[in-house]
Design brief:
about 180 residues; mainly alpha; Arc Repressor Mutant, subunit A; about 65% helix; 3 strands
Length: about 180
């Protein structure tokens, strides 16, 4: 069983390293130098945020691929770093993904030794999710990579501008989350 896990981690690590290598060989595409993007597309909120998010994820992959963690695990690890433990339902709501997707992500993370699940004491069908020792080590790696990526992404922005970005992003998230809850 341990040998199978080591093999899966090695295959995952190899796959992630290859993805990171391929992505680092690509030219950076921005609205200014990519003629395929329609003029004004940088002013489409969803496109701008999606592009930023994908570039942040790929930058993280380049910094964490050698550790064998998949991008889908980043938000789970980040939330568990702050909460210490959570249920699948709580994580699904916090990360804004559907329960079946969260179930697959958690199953993969458990298989890879990143999380452990234990039965919730107050509910027989629920389980509590926690980071394992390996998960806590990965959280330190991801945290350092995230700080590095943030400093690259925020280059040229003042602290006040970054604070304003977070304020605006929080407001937009709340606006959209209110619609989602209805």
């Amino acid at each position: 069983m341990a040998r199978q896990r080591e093999l899966r981690v090695a295959i995952t690590r190899s796959h992630l390293e290859e993805m990171a290598k391929r992505s680092s060989n690509k030219k950076s595409l921005t609205p200014a130098n990519d003629p395929t993007l329609p003029e004004g597309s940088e002013r489409i909120l969803g496109l701008a945020v999606n592009t930023l998010g994908r570039r942040i994820v790929w930058s993280l992959v380049q910094r964490t691929a050698q550790h064998g963690v998949l991008p889908g695990a980043y938000p789970v690890i980040a939330w568990l770093m702050h909460l210490n433990e959570a249920t699948q339902t709580e994580l699904s709501k916090l990360i804004s993904i559907e329960q079946p997707t969260m179930a697959v992500t958690l199953r993969r993370m458990e298989r890879d030794g990143i999380i452990q699940r234990t039965p919730a004491p107050d509910h027989g069908r629920k389980s509590v999710v926690k980071l394992t020792a390996r998960g806590r080590k990965l959280s330190a790696v991801i945290s350092a990579a995230a700080h590095d990526v943030q400093s690259v992404a925020a280059k040229g922005l003042s602290a006040a501008e970054l604070d304003e970005f977070y304020r605006l992003a929080g407001l937009m998230n709340e606006n959209l989350n209110t619609k989602r809850r209805r």
